[in-house]
Specification:
Elements lengths: L2 E7 L2 E7 L2 H14 L3 E5 L7 H12 L4
Antiparallel strand pairs: 1-2, 1-3
Helix pairs in contact: 1-2
């Protein structure tokens, strides 16, 4: 699933498009550590956070019953 991040760096706004949950989580951690305000949405337009990303990664790796 693709993720869109709208970040407000000092003096400029940047939009990132990221293809995987792992890459989105890494960008989440990077922007949070840098103190950059941002919002992340998935391809359905749903706002997601780091917990949502971790849950989606875990759900993908769990065996089906």
């Amino acid at each position: 699933m693709a993720y869109r991040i709208s970040a407000r760096h000092p003096g400029r706004a940047v939009t990132y498009t990221i293809d995987t949950e792992e890459a989105a989580l890494a960008k989440w951690e990077e922007l949070t550590a840098d103190g950059v305000p941002f919002e992340m949405t998935d391809s359905d337009g749903v706002i997601v956070d780091d917990i949502d990303l971790e849950d989606r990664i875990d759900a993908r790796s769990e065996p089906e019953a």
